[in-house]
């Protein structure tokens, strides 16, 4: 950050407002802006009362003695309370009136469908918990999970939670060294995997990759292998066991451990968008309460919903909004194993129609891919069952938002743009859909109990309309408690940058209506002649051009201006790069946001470097634009060939 100015200049102008559709609001949990505002005020004026009430929706074995305790990095929630999250996700419903309700509704990439009721899930989770116990795994032990999107993946998480083992899910697309790094960082004693998984018609050799990773891991004693495809794999005697064989031997009853509210639940590494991934540790009580409450209000869950969050369980979104949040609410959760464009580009829309999905939650990167593939794929399906849409992961460009609103939501479904992080555990800023009007590109207003603010580096509030650093003023229940094994780094990274607050690392501005607009990572801010631009503004201007599918903007050093703007652009299907188009796009940005934002360099590319979770890795582009090389951490890069292609240039 420059010393003179920590403010971001903001030139993004987006005036469209979409009030909640009256039919939606009439049936919603929160039905009006007045109701949202009253609840919000209560939640921040009386946080202990508010969160205690929320926690009463869960079953506790022993009640807490204090709702919250401690400040900042040292905050604790529901102190003294004992509960089990697996019990709250499964037993509560299986033993109540949802025994025969479908909990997991799964479709494999080749097309098979499986349905597990809460009753069946209850049995499976208990059996697998007993399998883990039979291997000597006990509360506090770390267990790595490296699987594809199968129901067994959710079962593995819930079984760990049931016995108090700390799961560490490693995204099933990572290479062997990413597994060994993560396993060694926390000393995992076992790893749960599967033979192979399906992705875009081919098989990913998960078990073979685990074998390679384990050559560098001394702590792992057991490997449990779920048989998904039946493809041949090597089993190492004494170490490797088949899931189905162990399940058959295991008893179907396993009492849930009474976990302390502050006992660890899981650890999970961030996506690595801004650097080396950090292993965040989440605990039990506060995480349970906030994931449950946000799922209820932001996805407005009702008993007849078929809820589909397309995130892989390998990311925090999958933890909080495929597994723990919706299942605590007793929702029917759709899970899909494979790629969105397999066998064709309309797979998601087909799934929505086939399974009558009502709530659909995906990422801006996916939405930009859908627009690039073309509207004809969407038009083949009715999408009538949908009532609510969501996005997460990156700021959504207003033009992508409008496409989502029109093409998928048919102008009938509210869109919840949910801002949060691995570190926050649960959604922090998002519209409560029956109450808060939406604006394309804005995550809108804070969730109950959350106090975000836009400030300078010194922690002073920035006036509305101006950009600054996004911080959170008070601790919240689902926040990560530490970076595993490195409390000092946790305190430095999040709790010391801006005095007295949690620092998100993101830039934002708040408008006169109290809406938050995320502007990109603070580290990515571009400073042109003293004007500070969020990457989001330049990128959104480019994406608004009819020929542009995706764009990434970065700064590179410039003698006169401090920084020059370099942009990387992918085009919509059917358009070709040309010098003429390059000039047209530079001019377009100048017209949309001002001459100052006119890109100095514009590179056409087939693809942008992204994390495995689909986020643009601007730090790699910045390196490339500055030095012509990439040396930074690329462990979570989605496609290693992208960098080489970019280096070759666009001509
Ligand atoms: P790393 O921390 O390793 O760099 P990461 O920040 O991408 O990786 P995540 O925790 O998966 O890892 O992502 C959180 C970040 O994603 C946020 O800090 C923010 O930059 C971005 N983000 C998520 N949702 C939104 C949203 N709705 N609007 C804007 N930005 C979002
Ligand atoms: Mg981050």
From TrEMBL:
<dbReference type="Pfam" id="PF00501">
    <property type="entry name" value="AMP-binding"/>
</dbReference>
<feature type="region of interest" description="Disordered">
    <location>
        <begin position="1"/>
        <end position="20"/>
    </location>
</feature>
<feature type="domain" description="AMP-dependent synthetase/ligase">
    <location>
        <begin position="96"/>
        <end position="480"/>
    </location>
</feature>
<dbReference type="GO" id="GO:0019427">
    <property type="term" value="P:acetyl-CoA biosynthetic process from acetate"/>
</dbReference>
<feature type="binding site">
    <location>
        <begin position="393"/>
        <end position="395"/>
    </location>
    <ligand>
        <name>ATP</name>
    </ligand>
</feature>
<feature type="binding site">
    <location>
        <position position="317"/>
    </location>
    <ligand>
        <name>CoA</name>
    </ligand>
</feature>
<feature type="modified residue" description="N6-acetyllysine">
    <location>
        <position position="615"/>
    </location>
</feature>
<feature type="binding site">
    <location>
        <position position="532"/>
    </location>
    <ligand>
        <name>ATP</name>
    </ligand>
</feature>
<feature type="binding site">
    <location>
        <position position="548"/>
    </location>
    <ligand>
        <name>Mg(2+)</name>
    </ligand>
</feature>
<comment type="function">
    <text>Catalyzes the conversion of acetate into acetyl-CoA (AcCoA), an essential intermediate at the junction of anabolic and catabolic pathways. AcsA undergoes a two-step reaction. In the first half reaction, AcsA combines acetate with ATP to form acetyl-adenylate (AcAMP) intermediate. In the second half reaction, it can then transfer the acetyl group from AcAMP to the sulfhydryl group of CoA, forming the product AcCoA.</text>
</comment>
<dbReference type="GO" id="GO:0016208">
    <property type="term" value="F:AMP binding"/>
</dbReference>
<keyword id="KW-0007">Acetylation</keyword>
<feature type="binding site">
    <location>
        <position position="529"/>
    </location>
    <ligand>
        <name>CoA</name>
    </ligand>
</feature>
<feature type="binding site">
    <location>
        <position position="341"/>
    </location>
    <ligand>
        <name>CoA</name>
    </ligand>
</feature>
<feature type="binding site">
    <location>
        <position position="543"/>
    </location>
    <ligand>
        <name>Mg(2+)</name>
    </ligand>
</feature>
<comment type="similarity">
    <text>Belongs to the ATP-dependent AMP-binding enzyme family.</text>
</comment>
<dbReference type="GO" id="GO:0005524">
    <property type="term" value="F:ATP binding"/>
</dbReference>
<dbReference type="InterPro" id="IPR042099">
    <property type="entry name" value="ANL_N_sf"/>
</dbReference>
<keyword id="KW-0479">Metal-binding</keyword>
<feature type="binding site">
    <location>
        <position position="521"/>
    </location>
    <ligand>
        <name>ATP</name>
    </ligand>
</feature>
<feature type="binding site">
    <location>
        <position position="506"/>
    </location>
    <ligand>
        <name>ATP</name>
    </ligand>
</feature>
<feature type="binding site">
    <location>
        <begin position="199"/>
        <end position="202"/>
    </location>
    <ligand>
        <name>CoA</name>
    </ligand>
</feature>
<dbReference type="GO" id="GO:0003987">
    <property type="term" value="F:acetate-CoA ligase activity"/>
</dbReference>
<dbReference type="InterPro" id="IPR032387">
    <property type="entry name" value="ACAS_N"/>
</dbReference>
<dbReference type="GO" id="GO:0005829">
    <property type="term" value="C:cytosol"/>
</dbReference>
<dbReference type="Pfam" id="PF13193">
    <property type="entry name" value="AMP-binding_C"/>
</dbReference>
<dbReference type="InterPro" id="IPR025110">
    <property type="entry name" value="AMP-bd_C"/>
</dbReference>
<dbReference type="Pfam" id="PF16177">
    <property type="entry name" value="ACAS_N"/>
</dbReference>
<protein>
    <recommendedName>
        <fullName>Acetyl-coenzyme A synthetase</fullName>
        <ecNumber>6.2.1.1</ecNumber>
    </recommendedName>
</protein>
<keyword id="KW-0436">Ligase</keyword>
<feature type="domain" description="AMP-binding enzyme C-terminal">
    <location>
        <begin position="537"/>
        <end position="615"/>
    </location>
</feature>
<keyword id="KW-0547">Nucleotide-binding</keyword>
<dbReference type="InterPro" id="IPR000873">
    <property type="entry name" value="AMP-dep_synth/lig_dom"/>
</dbReference>
<keyword id="KW-0460">Magnesium</keyword>
<dbReference type="InterPro" id="IPR045851">
    <property type="entry name" value="AMP-bd_C_sf"/>
</dbReference>
<feature type="domain" description="Acetyl-coenzyme A synthetase N-terminal">
    <location>
        <begin position="36"/>
        <end position="89"/>
    </location>
</feature>
<keyword id="KW-0067">ATP-binding</keyword>
<dbReference type="InterPro" id="IPR020845">
    <property type="entry name" value="AMP-binding_CS"/>
</dbReference>
<feature type="binding site">
    <location>
        <position position="545"/>
    </location>
    <ligand>
        <name>Mg(2+)</name>
    </ligand>
</feature>
<dbReference type="InterPro" id="IPR011904">
    <property type="entry name" value="Ac_CoA_lig"/>
</dbReference>
<dbReference type="GO" id="GO:0046872">
    <property type="term" value="F:metal ion binding"/>
</dbReference>
């Amino acid at each position: 950050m420059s010393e003179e100015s920590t403010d971001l200049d903001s030139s993004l102008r987006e005036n469209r407002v979409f009030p909640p559709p009256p039919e939606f609001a009439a049936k919603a949990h929160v039905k009006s802006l007045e109701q949202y505002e009253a609840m919000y005020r209560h939640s921040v004026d009386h946080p202990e009362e508010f969160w205690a009430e929320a926690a009463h929706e869960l079953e506790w074995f022993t009640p807490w003695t204090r709702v919250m305790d401690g400040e900042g990095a040292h905050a604790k929630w529901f102190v003294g309370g004992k509960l089990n999250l697996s019990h709250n996700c499964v037993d509560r419903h299986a033993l109540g009136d949802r025994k025969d309700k479908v909990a997991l509704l799964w479709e494999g990439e080749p097309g098979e469908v499986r349905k597990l009721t809460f009753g069946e899930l209850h049995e499976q989770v208990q059996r697998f918990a007993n399998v883990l116990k039979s291997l000597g795994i006990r509360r506090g032990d770390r267990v790595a999970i490296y699987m594809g999107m199968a129901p067994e993946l959710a079962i593995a998480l819930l079984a760990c939670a049931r016995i108090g083992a700390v799961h560490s899910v490693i995204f099933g697309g990572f290479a062997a060294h990413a597994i060994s790094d993560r396993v060694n960082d926390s000393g995992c004693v076992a790893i749960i995997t599967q033979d192979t998984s399906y992705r875009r018609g081919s098989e990913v050799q998960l078990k073979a990759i685990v074998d390679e990773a384990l050559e560098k891991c001394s702590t792992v004693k057991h490997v449990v292998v779920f048989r998904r495809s039946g493809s041949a794999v090597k089993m190492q005697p004494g170490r490797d066991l088949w899931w189905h064989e162990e399940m058959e031997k295991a008893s179907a009853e396993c009492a849930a451990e009474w976990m302390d509210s502050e006992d660890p639940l899981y650890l999970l590494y961030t996506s690595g968008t801004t650097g080396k991934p950090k292993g965040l540790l989440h605990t039990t009580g506060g995480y349970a309460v906030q994931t449950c409450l946000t799922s209820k209000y932001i996805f407005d869950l009702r008993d007849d919903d078929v809820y589909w969050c397309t995130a892989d369980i390998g990311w925090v979104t999958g933890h909080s909004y495929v597994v723990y949040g919706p299942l605590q609410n007793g929702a029917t959760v759709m899970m899909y194993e494979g790629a969105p464009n397999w066998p064709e580009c309309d797979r998601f829309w087909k799934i929505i129609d086939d399974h009558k999905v009502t709530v659909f939650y995906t990422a801006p990167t996916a939405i930009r891919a859908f627009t690039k593939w073309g509207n004809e794929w969407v038009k083949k399906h009715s999408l009538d069952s949908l009532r609510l849409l969501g996005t997460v992961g990156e700021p959504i460009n207003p033009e992508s938002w409008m496409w989502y609103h029109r093409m998928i939501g048919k102008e009938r479904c509210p869109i919840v743009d949910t801002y949060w992080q691995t570190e926050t555990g649960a959604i922090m800023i998002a519209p409560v859909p029956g109450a808060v009007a939406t604006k394309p590109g804005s995550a809108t207003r804070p969730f109950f109990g959350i106090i975000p603010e836009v400030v300078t580096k010194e922690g002073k509030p920035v006036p509305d309309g101006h950009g600054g650093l996004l911080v959170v003023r008070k601790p919240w229940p689902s926040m990560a408690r530490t970076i595993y094994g490195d409390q000092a780094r946790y305190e430095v990274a999040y709790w010391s940058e801006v005095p007295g607050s949690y620092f998100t690392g993101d830039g934002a501005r708040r408008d006169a209506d109290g809406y938050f607009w995320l502007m990109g990572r603070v580290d990515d801010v571009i400073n042109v002649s003293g004007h500070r631009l969020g990457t989001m503004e330049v990128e959104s201007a480019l994406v608004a051009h009819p020929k542009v599918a995706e764009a990434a903007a970065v700064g590179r050093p410039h003698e006169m201006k401090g920084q020059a703007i370099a942009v990387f652009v992918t085009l919509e299907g059917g358009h070709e790069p040309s010098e003429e188009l390059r000039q047209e796009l530079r001019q377009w940005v100048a017209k949309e946001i001002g001459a100052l934002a006119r890109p100095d360099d514009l590179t056409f590319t087939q693809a942008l470097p992204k994390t495995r979770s689909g986020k643009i890795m601007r730090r790699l582009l910045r390196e490339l634009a500055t030095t012509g090389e990439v040396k930074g951490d690329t462990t979570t890069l989605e496609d290693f060939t992208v960098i080489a292609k970019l280096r070759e240039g666009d001509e």
